[in-house]
Design a protein that fits this description.
heterodimer; A: MetI-like fold; 2 strands; B: alpha/beta; 6-stranded mixed sheet; about 35% helix; about 20% strand; binds adenosine-5'-diphosphate; binds magnesium ion
Chain lengths: ~350, ~280
C-alpha cells in the first residue's frame, strides 16, 4: 500500500488518462445462471437418496433437507457469487457452474463421497499392514532364480519375452501407423475420400482398448494355453500402437509446412514422391519420438495384458496376484522390477531422442 | 513460349484473381511483374504451372495448353517449368543435395524416390546445378543450416535440376537483405541468359525490376495495366500502375525484408506517430 502511494507521489509518470474499469457482466445473465443452479438443485433433490438429512432449526420450526443436494446447491451459489465479485465473464461463470454440476452429478451416481469416507476404516481393519510389508520386502530371489510355476522357464526369461514382444509390436505397429497416418491426413493422402475412410478406420482401431484387443486375439487364435500367448499379446499391442501413431502422426502431418510440398508439386513430383521427399523428412522427428513413447507404453501395457492370459511378465504377475494369499513378496518384486524397467526404458528413450533430434 | 489469351482466374470463394489477361512471352525473355500487394502477381505466375487453376480463356506453355484438370499432363508440364518461392520452400531437414534431387522427381522412377536411391546421372545433374549457383561445397549440409541467400540458391539449383524451359519466381528476393537480393537476382539473370530459359519474376521493387528485366508487366486488381520494355516503364507509367505517387521505398536500393504495405494500416499509422495505439 505504502509502496504504491510513494510511487504515485514520487513520479510524475506519463500524462494521466482515466483508466478503464473492468466491464461489469450483465446481471440478467447471472440471474439466468442462478436459475440454472436452482434447476440443477431441483434435479438433484428429485434423484436424491435419503442417506443423510440435515435439520435446519429456524427458531419457530425445524426444516429438514437432504444433506448432499443442499451442500451442492450452496457450492454452486458460492461459485456464482465469487464469479460475480471478481467480475468474471458470463461464459466463464457458466463454465465454472457446469463443472460443479457435472462433478456433483457424476460423483453422486457412484456415491463417491459416501464411499471415500469409508476408506480409512477399511485400511485399518483389513490386512493392509501385511500387504504393505510384503510389497516393501520384495523377494528378489524369487524373481531371479525361480521358474514359472510348473515349467522349467526361469522368471527372468518372462522379462525377456516382454521386452521382445514390445520391440516387435513397436516396430510393426509404428510402421503400419506411419502408413495409415499418411493415408489419413488430407495433406498426404490420395483424395478427400481416402483420407476420410482411413480416418474412420483409425478411430475404430483406437476405440478398442489394448486389453480388448488382447481378449479378441486370445479368443481368435488362442492364448498361452496353446503356446500362442506371446503372439496374441504382440498383435494386441500392435493394434494399440497403430491407433496411437496414426492419430498423433496424422496430426503432425496436418500441420506440416505447406511450402516444401508446393515446391515438390511444382517440380512435377507425384503424390508418393512428394510424401517421401517433403512430408516424411518433416515429420521424422515426431515419428521417432512417438515410436519411443509407444515402446514405453508397450512395456507398461504388457503387464496389464497378462491379466487376460497372455505371455510375458504380465502373465506371471496375474498368476502371482491370484495366489496372493500365500504372500505378497513375489508381487512386490515384480512391481518393483516393473518400475525399474520402465524407468530404464524411459531414460534410454530420452537419450535416443536427444541424440537423434 | 507462354501465351495468355483472355485468361480469367476465379477463386473458389468467387474472388476474381485474374481478369481477362492477354500476354505473350517469347522464349528466353526475362519478364518482371510488378504491382502492389494483392494485384494478382502470384495468381498470374501460379496459373502458368497450374498451382492455381485458371477458369477462363486459354493458357499455352510451349506447345501444350495448360489443363488444370489433367493431373498427369500437368505433371509433365511442371517438369519443364521450375518454380522459385519467396520462402525458398526447401525441405529443411534433408541435405542440400537431396533438396536439389527433388527437382529430378519427374524423371525419376517412383521406387527410386521412395528408397532415396537416385541414379548416377541424376546426381551428376544435381551437382552441375549446384556448381552453377556456386554452393557445391554445401552439398551435404542440412538445407536449414544455410543462410537465406544460400537457401534461395539451393532452390534455384533444384529448379535447374529440372532442366527447365521456363522458370517462375514468386518474389524470389523479398526475404533477402538488399545486397544478397541483388546477388541472387544477378545469378538468376546470368543463368537464364546462359541457358536460354524463359523467366517470369514477381517483384514489388521497381529498382530491381528495372535493373534486371528485359520487359515489365504492371498489374492492378487482376488486370495487366502496363506491358512494355523496361525503358518504357518510366516513373509516370509506374505511378499509373500503383495508382499513387512513388515513394522512396519503391525505388530506393536500400530495401526492407518486410515492406510497410504488408502491415495493417493501423500498425503503420502507429509506427509513424511513434506511439503504440491507445484507445481514447
Ligand atoms: N486461394 C485464394 N482464395 C481467394 N482469394 C485469393 C486466394 N489467393 C489469393 N486471393 C486473392 O487474390 C488477390 C490477388 O492475390 P495475389 O495474386 O496473391 O496477389 P500478389 O501476389 O500480387 O500480392 C488478392 O486480393 C488475394 O486476396
Ligand atoms: Mg504474392
Amino acid at each position: 500500500m505504502t509502496a504504491v502511494a510513494e510511487r504515485t507521489s514520487a513520479e510524475a509518470g506519463p500524462a494521466r488518462v482515466t483508466r478503464p474499469e473492468p466491464p461489469t457482466p450483465p446481471l440478467v445473465n447471472y440471474l439466468g445462471l442462478v436459475v440454472v443452479a436452482v434447476a440443477a438443485f431441483a434435479f438433484f433433490w428429485w434423484t436424491r437418496d435419503d442417506t443423510s438429512v440435515l435439520y435446519l432449526p429456524l427458531g419457530v420450526t425445524t426444516l429438514w433437507a437432504p444433506q448432499w443436494p443442499l451442500i451442492g446447491f450452496l457450492v454452486m451459489l458460492a461459485v456464482l457469487a465469487l464469479c460475480w465479485f471478481t467480475r468474471t465473464g458470463v461464459m466463464a461463470a457458466f463454465g465454472a457452474l457446469t463443472v460443479v454440476i457435472f462433478s456433483y452429478w457424476a460423483g453422486s451416481n457412484i456415491h463417491f463421497i459416501d464411499r471415500i469416507v469409508e476408506v480409512p476404516g477399511r485400511l485399518t481393519a483389513g490386512n493392509t499392514r501385511e500387504q504393505l510389508i510384503g510389497y516393501f520386502n520384495p523377494d528378489w530371489s524369487y524373481l531371479l532364480f525361480s521358474n514359472v510355476a510348473g515349467t522349467s522357464r526361469p522368471i527372468w526369461g518372462e522379462w525377456l519375452i516382454t521386452l521382445c514382444m514390445a520391440v516387435v509390436a513397436t516396430i510393426i505397429g509404428c510402421f503400419i501407423g506411419l502408413l495409415l497416418a499418411m493415408l489419413a491426413s488430407p495433406v498426404s493422402s490420395f483424395s478427400k475420400t481416402s483420407s476420410q475412410t482411413v480416418k474412420a478406420i483409425n478411430s475404430v482401431v483406437r476405440s478398442i482398448p489394448d486389453v480388448g484387443w488382447a481378449l479378441l486375439f486370445a479368443a481368435f487364435i488362442g492364448g498361452t494355453a496353446y503356446g500362442l500367448g506371446a503372439l496374441a499379446a504382440v498383435l494386441a499391442l500392435m493394434m494399440f500402437n497403430i491407433g496411437i501413431v496414426a492419430k498423433l502422426l496424422g496430426e503432425s502431418i496436418d500441420a506440416v509446412d505447406p511450402g516444401p510440398l508446393e515446391a515438390a508439386d511444382a517440380a512435377g513430383a507425384n503424390l508418393l514422391q512428394r510424401d517421401r521427399v517433403a512430408v516424411l523428412p518433416a515429420v521424422m522427428p515426431s515419428f521417432v519420438s512417438y515410436s519411443l513413447y509407444v515402446f514405453e507404453l508397450n512395456i507398461r501395457a504388457s503387464a496389464a495384458l497378462g491379466v487376460v492370459g497372455v505371455a510375458g511378465i504380465g502373465g506371471e504377475l496375474s498368476r502371482q496376484i491370484r495366489r496372493m494369499s500365500q504372500g505378497y513378496e513375489n508381487v512386490g518384486a515384480i512391481l518393483w522390477a516393473l518400475v525399474i524397467v520402465v524407468l530404464l526404458v524411459d531414460l534410454l528413450s530420452m537419450w535416443v531422442r536427444r541424440k537423434l533430434l | 513460349m507462354i501465351t495468355f489469351e483472355n485468361v480469367d482466374v476465379i477463386y473458389p470463394n468467387g474472388f476474381k484473381g485474374l481478369d481477362d489477361v492477354n500476354v505473350e512471352i517469347a522464349r528466353g525473355e526475362f519478364v518482371a511483374i510488378i504491382g502492389l500487394s494483392g494485384a494478382g502477381k502470384s495468381t498470374l505466375i501460379r496459373a502458368v504451372n497450374g498451382l492455381v487453376p485458371y477458369t477462363g480463356g486459354t493458357l499455352t506453355v510451349g506447345e501444350t495448353v495448360v489443363d488444370p484438370k489433367n493431373k498427369s499432363k500437368l505433371r509433365r508440364l511442371r517438369s519443364k517449368v521450375g518454380m522459385i518461392f519467396q520462402q525458398f520452400n526447401n525441405v529443411g531437414r534433408i541435405s542440400v543435395l537431396n533438396n536439389v534431387l527433388i527437382g529430378r522427381s519427374a524423371v525419376t522412377p517412383t521406387w527410386r524416390s521412395l528408397i532415396g536411391w537416385y541414379g548416377a546421372e541424376d546426381k551428376e545433374v544435381a551437382f552441375q546445378s549446384l556448381e552453377r549457383v556456386g554452393i557445391v561445397d554445401k552439398a551435404y549440409n542440412r538445407a536449414s543450416a544455410l543462410s537465406g541467400g544460400q537457401q534461395q540458391r539451393v532452390a534455384i539449383a533444384r529448379v535447374l535440376a529440372q532442366d527447365p524451359e521456363v522458370i517462375l519466381a514468386d518474389e524470389p528476393v523479398a526475404s533477402l537483405d538488399p545486397p544478397t537480393a541483388r546477388k541472387v537476382l544477378g545469378d538468376l539473370r546470368r543463368i537464364q541468359q546462359d541457358l536460354g530459359i524463359t523467366c517470369i519474376v514477381n517483384m514489388h521493387h521497381l529498382d530491381l525490376a528495372r535493373d534486371y528485366a528485359d520487359r515489365i508487366i504492371g498489374m492492378r486488381a487482376g488486370r495487366v495495366v502496363f506491358d512494355g520494355p523496361t525503358e518504357e516503364a518510366t516513373d509516370t507509367v509506374i505511378e499509373d500502375v500503383y495508382q499513387r505517387s512513388l515513394t522512396a521505398e519503391d525505388i530506393a536500393t536500400a530495401d526492407f525484408p518486410v515492406s510497410l504495405e504488408d502491415l495493417p494500416a493501423e500498425a503503420v499509422a502507429g509506427v509513424v506517430a511513434g506511439e503504440p495505439d491507445r484507445k481514447p
